[in-house]
Design goal:
The protein has 151 residues and is α+β, with helices and mostly antiparallel strands. The chain has one domain: Roll (Thiol Ester Dehydrase, Chain A). The chain has 4 helices and 6 strands. The radius of gyration is 15 Å and the shape is globular.
């Protein structure tokens, strides 16, 4: 059964309730990219009249992690995944609807294949760029993921 945006959002409600309550939602996912949206509102605001940086981080991490989850599910292999480092750059106040996009699905395929073939842990840096409704970049997150086949 394919992993869809609706299934991921249901997963959020039960397994990542803070992200769900803050309005983080998967909007689109396919073999190449994942889009995660979040709207600036009372529950996720900061004192500076914009979205709290950690809420942006949850949306960005989900954009990268959901792609990995989908790929692992398609492979039907037991593979562990863990964020081991992240970096963020904020370039504009996050107001309105922000969409975080990760477009590295093909990179994930290569690294997962290497992890399966070698049995060794692999790392991969995935980028999620957040844009506002005007198309301006508000934040860029880089997550270093560790992927390792479980035996």
């Amino acid at each position: 059964m394919a992993l869809s945006a609706n299934k991921l959002n249901l997963f959020l409600a039960f397994n990542l309730p803070s992200a769900f309550l803050c309005g983080v939602r998967v909007k689109q996912i396919n073999a190449f990219e994942c889009h995660v949206g979040v709207r600036h509102k009372w529950i996720n605001k900061n004192p500076f009249k914009s979205m709290f940086w950690a809420v942006q981080g949850m949306a960005a991490e989900l954009a990268t992690g959901a792609l990995i989850i989908m790929k692992i599910k398609q492979l039907n292999k037991k593979i562990s995944m863990l964020v081991i480092k992240n970096e963020a750059q904020f370039t504009k106040k996050a107001k309105g609807r922000i969409i975080f996009r990760c477009t590295q699905g093909m990179d994930i395929d290569k690294v997962l294949q290497s992890a399966i073939e070698s049995g060794e842990g692999q790392t991969l840096t995935l980028k999620a760029e957040g844009r506002d409704e005007a198309g301006d970049v508000v934040a860029t997150f880089n997550f270093l993921w560790s992927l390792k086949r479980k035996f």
